[in-house]
TrEMBL record, chains A, B:
It comes from Adhaeribacter terreus. Pathway: Amino-acid degradation; L-phenylalanine degradation; acetoacetate and fumarate from L-phenylalanine: step 6/6. One of its GO terms (molecular function) is fumarylacetoacetase activity. This is fumarylacetoacetase. It comes from the Bacteria. Keywords: Calcium, Hydrolase, Magnesium, Metal-binding, Phenylalanine catabolism, Tyrosine catabolism. The gene is fahA.
Length: 423, 423
């Protein structure tokens, strides 16, 4: 077992029950406190630990970071580029410093004052610069629901779906961190036989997804097998793949979604390492027909991560509208990465690979309004008496995710965004 | 008229007839000479002009470049970020220094020795770091040909095609500069009722395209109108969108091409500025039905650029297999950029926007093997007696492009790549 994952570890920092950031998590992010320049931080309880300041106090001398200024950047990319042994060593060292039986940092009043900042007092920034972004389509329940609504209910899954993890390239520039407002996009839509029109989307939707971030680059022509994939993955975030359904319907043939998706995606601010998620591995669904050898894997590659979506109307009350789980995925991330590289496509550090909408079997586990309201035919009833077919201006959509075992909860921090009216 | 475009200008450097790099061109690129670090250069005749060295000799004092080390980088992005007035001023200054009636640089032997390097002696690198890459589908002849082959010959164009410039996001990481070999990709394909198999593509193809590169960023929510688009475009390159047709057919529904495209794209090394291409503006085809207001433009937005594709078998003779022209485009780049931003999608510096395959009406002007051989049913006959349905291992594909008027030829440099066998 990875030492920092020991469920018996306790920190000298008080961790509230149900807190997503116990000593067993220690996710990485980029934060800004007051007028100080952005830097690398780790979430612990109600605090951010300033890793750059910590390094200045000499606490990382035994960690193999040749140049500590990689911790004094506005993205994690340079830190990630140091490689998996360094991410792991850094997390282990932070764990050691925060352990309740270790006084070396705890008892240094000046260091504690400089290095621990309340999370409520910092601004979280995009954790990585994203050179490439792929969105997969790997939930069989989601793909089936969409196929039933838009194509043939009797043959909802397209012929390729069970043979390869369908995916497409998305827009990297418009991925924003939790807390960034989303402006309702304008776009072309077409209703029935009318001529197409241009204006604000009438069918703004979210998609509940989880994304992994690569931490190791490859050269053109190189491949990564499913069983090697973990060496290339730094960590994970929650991902809201905002979508405009009416625009998507009109534009997406034959080359796929474009403006219906690329106006915004929202991610959670903390990158939870694969190391921290290791205790939550579970078996995935059986894949039948058997997949081709380049997609075969060994061991448990799915992760048991509870997911939920909450909707809060302007000035109203927050309501949970979806509860799903990342373990439902038909195609796991190891297969996704193997497929992505199977043709020699090269990976870069900070690439983001999103799962596709994660829906379960149950109607309350559907990961989009499209599915929850079945194309708007079954509107959701909200506590304030209003109903929703899609997302309204002023609505705030929040995604939460956590893995839990032995009373320890490993979470991501909220992935939240408010919708502003179209310009 | 832009001063540097004057057809009566002559340089003290000898320019061969038909040379693509006369004093009226002056495209920007990144080059590496011997053991020296990469830097910004401008092509002139048979030479590269080292702009960083030129700045060290003091020749850019009147150009508004606050920090000359932007010329001493391995991409053009930092230089481009200085803005259009600076690109223009730099090109005008280089033009002035190379003019046959100006001795200030010509007569400085040491400067000439340091700053002018034979193009045959340098290695050209990727000119830009590409944060986002979009591929459009804007040739009506190409879209019609593909629709006839793969869908319904009587309704070859899909209903959205004449209402919006269809496009999709591609992979930025695998865009490489001319001269980089392309490895035949492995991938999943499916023939008839057989189970899918994994192996080298049997239908490797090129796509003849031209791409523009953005030089000005926008914020999320901002839009760019067709008439403003030129202020956001730095320049253009030739673009080979390598494609594996058998993989594409199997994978592309419903989310578009993915592994069939992202194993490699090849670009020409020199970025030809919009300024240099200004004299070659022509009217585009009439758009009927009329487009929505956000896609309407004024003036001539098409460019008359001759394009050709040459095929050279291993050890064999180079043959021209296609002659096309960028002026055939139904949707122009101003409309493409307006569409891309119409939903508020933000632009970044170095983004690449490719045209889609540029085919003309004539069968010899088709910009892909798919069309030239009509899905392989009419193989091309090569001078060595062999025939091609698609591209073979060992084949070298070269794209060339130039605009020509008043005896002045503005070219891009070869966009060339050799195909290596699958790994």
């Amino acid at each position: 077992m990875i030492k920092a994952n020991d469920p018996n570890l306790h920190s000298w920092i008080t961790i509230a029950p149900d807190c997503e950031f116990p000593i067993q998590n220690l996710p990485f992010g980029i934060f800004k406190a007051g007028f100080k320049d952005p830097r690398v931080g780790v979430a612990i309880g109600e605090y951010v630990l300033d890793l750059y300041a910590l390094s200045q106090f000499g606490y990382f001398e035994e960690v193999n970071i040749p140049d500590h200024t990689v911790l004094f950047r506005d993205t994690l990319n340079a830190f990630i580029a140091l490689g998996k042994p360094v991410w792991r060593q850094t997390r282990e060292r932070v764990s050691e410093l925060l352990r309740n039986d270790n006084g070396e940092f705890r008892d240094n009043e000046e260091a504690v004052r400089e290095c621990l900042i309340k999370r409520s007092e910092v601004e979280m920034l995009m954790p990585v610069r994203v050179p490439n972004y792929t969105d997969f389509y790997s939930s069989i329940e989601h793909a089936t629901n969409v196929g039933m609504m838009f194509r043939d209910p009797a043959n909802a899954l397209l012929p390729n779906w069970k043979h390869l993890p369908v995916g497409y390239h998305g827009r990297a520039s418009s991925i924003t961190v939790s807390g960034t407002d989303v402006i309702r996009p304008n776009g072309q839509t077409k209703v029935g036989d009318n001529a197409p029109t241009f204006g604000p989307t009438k069918e703004l939707d979210f998609e509940l997804e989880v994304a992994f971030i690569t931490g190791r680059e490859t050269q053109l022509g190189s491949t990564v097998t499913p069983d090697e994939a973990e060496d290339y993955i730094f960590g994970m975030v929650l991902f809201n793949d905002w979508s405009a359904r009416d625009m998507q319907r009109w534009e997406y043939v034959p080359l796929g979604p474009f403006l219906a998706k690329n106006f915004a995606s929202t991610i959670s601010p903390w990158v939870v390492t694969l190391d921290a998620l290791e205790p939550f591995r579970v078996a995935g669904p059986e894949q039948e027909p058997a997949v081709l050898p380049y997609l075969q894997y060994s061991g448990n590659k799915n992760l048991d991560i509870n997911l939920e979506v909450l909707l809060k109307p302007e000035g109203g009350q927050e309501t949970t509208i979806c509860r799903s789980n990342y373990k439902y995925m038909y195609w796991n991330m190891n297969q996704q990465l193997a497929h992505q590289t199977s043709n020699g496509c090269n990976l870069q550090i900070g690439d983001m690979y999103a799962s596709g909408t994660i829906s379960g079997k149950d109607e309350t586990s559907y990961g989009s309004m499209l599915e929850l309201t079945w194309k708007g035919t079954k509107p959701l009833q909200l506590p304030d008496g209003s109903e929703r077919k899609f997302i309204n201006d002023g609505d705030t959509v929040t995604m939460r995710g956590y893995a839990e075992k032995n009373g320890i909860r490993i979470g991501f921090g909220d992935c939240t965004a408010k919708v502003l009216p179209a310009l």
